[in-house]
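Quick check before the chapter quiz. The format below is the same one you will see on the exam, so make sure you can read both the input and the output lines.
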Amino acid sequence: MPMKDRTRFGQYGGRYVPEILMPALEELEREYDRVKGDSAFQAELREYMAHYGGRPTPLYLARRLTERCGGAKIYLKREDLCHGGAHKFNNVMGQALLCKRMGKERVIAETGAGQHGTATAMAAAVLGLKAEIYMGTEDIARQRMNVFRMKLMGAKVHPVDSGSRTLKDALNEAFRDWAATVESTYYLMGTAAGPHPYPAMVRDFQSVIGREIRRQILSQEGRLPDLLVACVGGGSNAIGTFHPFLNDPGVGFLGAEAAGEGLATGKHAASISGGKVGVLHGCKSYLLQDENGMISQTHSVAAGLDYPGVGPEHSLLNDIHRAQYTGITDQQALLAFRTLSEVEGIIPALESSHAVAAGMERAAEMSKDQVIVITVSGRGDKDLETVIDLMGVDD
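Here is the expected output.
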């Protein structure tokens, strides 16, 4: 029997990086393995999660949305109520504490929608770390509020004007920085992708979402849900939602990818639904590529989903049919954005709107005695300028 590769999920994951980064990744893996069992570290993280981040976030029964869909009972996991407005807080706080434990005072990060950058700036401020954030100029233009928030909290934002000027290009620049400053810098990755140990480490920090859902739904319904739904770009909130239920075969998983203007148009960011296996940013996974294996340009109305790859564990879950992944177009996401705002008074991030659209569609096909939980990964204030441009204020 072949030896199991600890850096991979099936054939996916691994460490496809220059030699100069290998010592840093090995050091990170050692330190992370150490703090997993360190009661003092875990107690400090729980303290920040509860009293700074506002956890546990509510699990809310969306009665009017349930009535609108006419099928399964719909609950919303309110990660938008985390400090900073998104699930990004969970992973960032854990990694920022790890950075401090490792004695490094400078953190770098990449961001698309700005939520990871905002969370990094926030954690750096509260822990006294220096933060520098890489962000594509296309994303800077559509997420001006988050750029202002990062700067307000003391972070330096590096505009990236290469390629598609989005998240992929920001990641490229962050990796270049890290390769040049690896001795003194901690790379705080925002999603469950990249080289080992990032996919497993980010998943572990984000699994607080699923663990809370389990406790809360058992308390409120006395049973586990039939289906968990979350949006998938890199896939950090989705894997954090799904992972604590992997051994519960009665709980289904549905990931909502960004189908942009439609999968058939090629203008999308749905790596699993429309991609093939390749290597990007140190990790083997499903990627959007052209016929020559070059990374394709992506499109999504949601900046945080505008990435041509996906975390390796999602690729494995897809292959073994443990999770389903569906494409949600920009128009479907915008309709869900408006619907949740109108019927529940909750304005979701455009990223989360993809999950809401997929959950509404699936709920309508299910029976009234079934239960769905949709993770609302972030709040939509950051997207209002984008939505006003697309829909108009009087529409």
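If your answer matched, good. The chain has a mean pLDDT of 95.
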